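Sample pair:
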Amino acid sequence: MAVPFDVRRLVVTGSPVAVLSDVQMTQVGHLYATLEVSASGAAVYVPGAPRLYQTPLLWLDREGRSERVTPMTRSWAYPRLSPDGRRLALTVDNDPETRDVWVLDLERDTLAA
């Protein structure tokens, strides 16, 4: 939605109008539109529904080298390592609306909800 606005008087000068529809939304703490507007007024956006990305989990060593934690790929987020270093708690997005907490057993390479 957009509304005419007088920047000198700082007042709305008209009624709201629909500018875009079918803009993809993403949730990172809060709900955001996948949209960006430049200072000149040019806009770029991602249409459609959110997409889940299947990504690997990676260890990173002190020299900057990475290695896969597991051969599994999921839509992972928010990893937390257990104090003993044998398990990894993380969230897995099942669909754009649902995020579940899982535990990855690093020794057995198994996931449990």
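DSSP finds no helices and twelve strands in the chain.
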